Amino acid sequence: MNQAPEALRTEVRAWLQNNIPRDWRAAMTGTDQDAFVRAQREWFGKLVKAGYATPHWPEGWPGGGRSLAEQKIIYEEVARADAPRLILFFVALYHAACTLIEWGTDEQKRTHLPGILDGKLWCQGFSEPNAGSDLAAVRTRAELRGDRYVINGQKIWSTLAQHADHCLLLVRTDTAGPPQAGLTYLLLDMRSKGVSVRPIVQITGDDEFSEIFLDDVEVPVSDRVGGEGQGWAVAQSTLASERGLTLVELSHRMRYALSRITNLMRERGVAGDAALRRDLGRLAPKVDAACALADQYLLKRIENTEAPGDASIVKLHYARTLRDFTALGLRIAGLQGQYREPFIRGGGMETGNWPFDFMNSYNWTIAGGSDEIQRNIIAERMLGMPREPKDWRLSGERS
Fold first, then answer.
1. 24 has pLDDT over 90
2. Which end of the chain, N or C, is less packed with Cβ atoms under 10 Å?
3. 25, 21, 65, 67: which is closest to 44 by C-alpha?
4. Is the pLDDT of residue 358 over 60?
5. What is the spatial distance between Cα 278 and Cα 230, in angstroms, rounded to a whole number?
6. Per residue in 83-96, pLDDT tens?
7. CB atoms within 10 A of CB 255
8. What is the pLDDT of residues 59-80, one digit of tens each?
9. Residue 157 and residue 174: Cα distance in Å, rounded?
10. Distance between CA 43 and CA 83 in Å, rounded?
11. ∠ CA(389), CA(391), CA(397), 5° rounding?
């Protein structure tokens, strides 16, 4: 599917203008989790029907087969229009779909890809209590018994797992050799016997994350993605799927959200405050740089010149800029903004509820690989610096 850039941009812009739900923030960033889920499903259905939910899928799927340049236009317009983000469907649309498209069997694709378009939800079962950004430390054990894996272990920080139908599950099938070589990637039916999901209620009152407990859970070998022991490679494909277009959309959303900062300054009567104007002046070029880095990274992907570490630079800068963005909004909102606005559930990163947005910004310095991990990737893979020793200790620390 190829379309002239300006014609596509005009088409998408007009569709969004006519279809974005009015007052969508009231439903998607309120305290009612059920209302959030309903609103997300309704918006997702509209996007699927229009072909704008899956432009990154192959040709033959609704809106699929578009070039990266065309996908970029769609995501830019979605950001420009301040349309709702598909928070509930993110793992399904990107992590699950892109992994299955690259690694899945024909049967797995036939089973799960149509289900995603029909509204099936997915969560990700990678992180564990002692294995967050370090996936090589995964300990959830899967033992092959006949044609099934029997799984025991625990996952944590699984986004919206309490609503999920399926889970992308990373397990350990071998403890010999390098830790990365002993991982296997499975597709878990969340209704399987032995699966327990416990939402984690945060200080904000939100239960965005959950723990998943696995007690003698059985998964058929036919639900393995890739070969046994290929879990590390498959997982890297999963994580790579959230970069590029996602960061283009998020960076551009932050650019358009700068107007909320200026509007807030006027509302609070501090538009003339020299210190705030100075900090806004420092923030704006950081936001522009985030957009430029994301655009440059996507261009490299289009030209097939992407290098190890490029995605880490984009994510690292975006995370730090988002922190500055929300911190300035929180500062301008002042105490009034903190004690009059309730904490919310299911919100995005730029809801305008500044205390919530500021705390939520810390997610981006951890999720998908912490800032420290991103710096290590840049140092080791891009700059060629020596790898961090695995057995180092502080001076005087005992073994």
1. no
2. C
3. 21
4. yes
5. 51
6. 998 989 999 999 99
7. 16
8. 999 999 999 899 999 999 999 9
9. 24
10. 9
11. 120
Structure pTM?
0.86
Q: Phi/psi at 88 (nearest 5 deg)?
A: -70, -30
Average pLDDT over residues 190-218: 92
Would you state the structure tokens that stand for residue 312, as one six-digit string? 């880490």
Q: How confident is the model at residue 205 (pLDDT cuts 50, 70, 90)?
A: confident
Backbone torsions φ then ψ of 391, nearest 5 degrees: -120, 25
According to DSSP, the β-strands at 224-225 and 183-189 are antiparallel
SS (H, E, C) the chain: CCCCHHHHHHHHHHHHHHHCCCCHHHHHCCCCHHHHHHHHHHHHHHHHHHCCCCCCCCECECCCCCCHHHHHHHHHHHHHCCCCCCCCCHHHHHHHHHHHHHHCCHHHHHHHHHHHHCCCCEEEECCECCECCCHHHCCCEEEEECCEEEEEEEEEEEECHHHCCEEEEEEECCCCCCHHHHEEEEEEECCCCCEEEEEECCCCCCCCEEEEEEEEEEEEHHHEECCCCCHHHHHHHHHHCCCCHHHHHHHHHHHHHHHHHHHHHHHCCCCCCHHHHHHHHHHHHHHHHHHHHHHHHHHHHHCCCCCCCHHHHHHHHHHHHHHHHHHHHHHHHHHHHHHCCCCCCCCCCCCCCHHHHHHHHHHHHCCCCCHHHHHHHHHHHHCCCCCCCCCCCCCCCCC
Single-letter residue type at 7: A
Highest mean pLDDT among 37-41, 133-137, 167-171, 205-209: 167-171
Question: What is the distance between the alpha carbons of residues 248 and 245, in angstroms, rounded to a whole number?
Answer: 5
Q: Bridge partners of 184? A: 171
pLDDT at 13 over 60: yes
Q: Taking the CB of residue 192, how many other CB atoms lie within 10 A of it?
A: 13
Residue 242 appears among annotated catalytic residues:
yes
Q: Which residue has the higher pLDDT, 296 or 399?
A: 296
Any idea which residue has 């024909």 for tokens? Answer: 106
Q: What are phi and psi of 381, to 5 degrees?
A: -90, -25
Q: What's the rounded Cα separation, in Å, for the pair 323 and 335?
A: 19
pLDDT, residue 298, reads: 87
pLDDT of residue 340: 59
Given 76, 128, 242, 350, the catalytic residue = 242
